[in-house]
Write a structure and sequence with these properties.
Shape: globular
CATH topology of the largest domain: Rossmann fold
Number of strands: 5
Bound molecules: tryptophan
CATH class of the largest domain: Alpha Beta
CATH superfamily of the largest domain: HUPs
Distance between the termini: 55 Å
Largest sheet: 3 strands, parallel
């Protein structure tokens, strides 16, 4: 590893630790008084949500909403075209995403679910925000770099380079102060805070206002570990190694039957040396709330087959109510359409109000 890389990793480790600590504190404050918080988070509508999404983020959002945190959830449709040539079946995917949110337990009476392409004033924030960042800063963004590498040498589009700024607009237009995300999104949160602070320093505040237009939002890291795909690689639809939320119980069984294990029949929890077996144990642990080692001990000599049966049964049992609600919603697409339309309307009201403050701060209210 070169010096710069070492330095970059050390820095990101430090910022990860800091974010972890901040997250712990926020969790404690939420338990005390959830009304001080507004969360915004979202997903790109690129395909079906799978159990990695569910355990890693969706179930946490539902918990936060149930704890009383005001909830904003974004279908990040513009972000889909940062690194691909067309939009594909994006409309169907957006509806499918909203269906998964509702099926997982997001309450549309309280949550605002919207697509950012439908909120002009949100998108307009991109202009003043772009004036607050340098191109060097954007080129250094680790997520932009990683995505650039993933596009395998295709040229960098202006949207890919600047999407962290657009993501800042997603977060700041509604003045969210907590953003439940994974570790990979931490650089975006840092960039968002920089934009919020620079806006205040450079453009100031609407006349008579003594608070900055934008809050300084914090990442809320979930404490559930991440799970791998059924072949031990990253869980991703492009590897075909996922269990999708919308799959049937039989499809789930079939997928898990094909999961990679190893030749040692006796089941132990050893993430270092037996990552695939450990991953199956983690999935079962997350589905049941039990510990991995305890499950491993119980299965012992039962081998990979017994482990897979246990994973299948517990996962299917956990997901059954969600899948039932999903099927109900699919029967009546009007429900999902209405939830999204109402969310878009609320998001527009909020974005228009924020843009008004921005224009006043910038002395551009004519
Ligand atoms: N970048 C996020 C992802 O790829 C999606 C996203 C877009 C998002 N805008 C956001 C997440 C704002 C949190 C807040 O998963």
């Amino acid at each position: 590893m070169g010096f710069e890389e070492t330095l970059a990793n050390a820095t990101s480790d430090a910022s990860y630790r800091r974010s972890r600590e901040t997250s712990e504190k926020i969790h404690a404050k939420i338990a005390e008084d959830p009304s001080q918080f507004r969360m915004l988070t979202g997903d790109r509508p690129t395909g079906n949500l799978h159990i990695g999404h569910y355990f890693g983020s969706l179930s946490n959002r539902v918990k936060l909403q149930q704890a009383g945190v005001e909830t904003w959830i974004l279908v990040a449709d513009y972000q889909v075209i940062t690194d691909r040539d067309g939009t594909g079946p994006i409309r169907e995917r957006a509806y499918s995403l909203v269906t998964d949110y509702l099926a997982a337990g997001i309450d549309p009476a309280k949550a605002t679910i919207f697509a950012h392409s439908q909120v002009p004033a949100l998108n307009q924030l991109m202009l003043p925000f772009l004036s607050l960042v340098t191109d060097a800063e954007l080129r250094r963004n680790p997520t932009v770099k990683a995505e650039l590498e993933a596009t395998e040498g295709r040229p960098l589009s202006g949207l890919l380079l600047t999407y962290p700024v657009h993501q800042a607009a997603d977060i700041l237009f509604c003045k969210a102060n907590i953003v439940p995300v994974g570790k990979d999104q931490l650089p975006h949160l840092e960039q968002t805070r920089v934009i919020a602070q620079r806006f205040d320093r450079r453009y100031g505040r609407p006349e008579g206002s003594d608070t900055p237009v934008f809050p300084s939002p914090q990442a809320l890291l979930s404490d559930s570990g991440t799970i791998l795909g059924l072949d031990g690689r990253k869980m991703s639809k492009s590897f075909g190694n996922t269990v999708d939320l919308g799959m049937s119980a039989d499809e789930t069984a079939k997928k898990i039957r094909k999961a990679v294990t190893d030749s040692d029949r006796f089941i132990t929890y050893d993430p270092e040396n037996r990552p695939e077996v450990a991953n199956l144990l983690t999935i079962a642990a997350m589905a049941t709330g039990r510990g991995q080692a305890e499950i491993a001990e119980e299965i012992g000599n039962g081998g990979g087959g017994t482990l897979k049966n246990y994973v299948t049964e517990t996962l299917n049992e956990l997901l059954a109510p969600l899948r039932e609600r999903r099927a109900e919603l699919e029967k009546d697409p009007e429900i999902v359409r209405r939830v999204l339309a109402e969310g878009i309307e609320r998001a527009n009201d909020q974005a228009n109000e924020t843009l008004r403050e921005v224009r006043e701060a910038m002395n551009m209210a004519y």
